[in-house]
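Narrative of activities, Objective 1.

The group set out to show that a structural description can be obtained from nothing but a protein's sequence at a throughput compatible with the screening campaign. Below is one input-output pair from the validation batch, recorded exactly as produced.
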Amino acid sequence: MVSYSLSHIAYIKIFLHAAKHPHKPVNGVLVGKLTSPGIVEIRDVIPLLHHWTSLSPMMEIGLDLAKGHAESLDLSLVGYYQASERLDDTALAPVGEKVAQQIRSQFNDAIAFVIDGDTLGSGKAALIPYLPQSDSTTAWRPHPFDPPAFTPGSRVTLIDPESPSRAVALVKNECLHSKFGDFDDHLEDVSIDWLQNKACNI
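Output recorded for this entry:
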């Protein structure tokens, strides 16, 4: 069985994206690679949009650019993440299923994360993992990992258990989310470094 490890910077960037646009849906892609023995290392994320409602041309362009950037680093798109505009909405949106399935068509062990708005500022890992129900369907559902994701012994782990609390501090104390930019932001200001967000590599 495949396991998933989420790097510190990947968690931080997902958190910053949600914190910058707390009342909007946000989404992005997970970047990493499958290593032996059967571990998907999620090393970084690339934030896409905060205006999305469908598979728009901008979404497709952003996905293509993100894929090209990942490949330039000898990595792959290994999954998808999203946050909804409502804190209590933890469903993977239909567009999210489509994007996740699109990534899965090129990386069979793809995973999706939905940000849990109710626990986002708690210092706990605020991500709900989704996997496809079966090989015969494109429907993605929350996966009942046993032990649960981000708990000791789970197949879904944080490289640094302190990442969630560190992310909260970076927003509250340093306002780091103000330096974070996604593809939407880049379209309005081409100087924004949405592919790497080097200012947020902490």
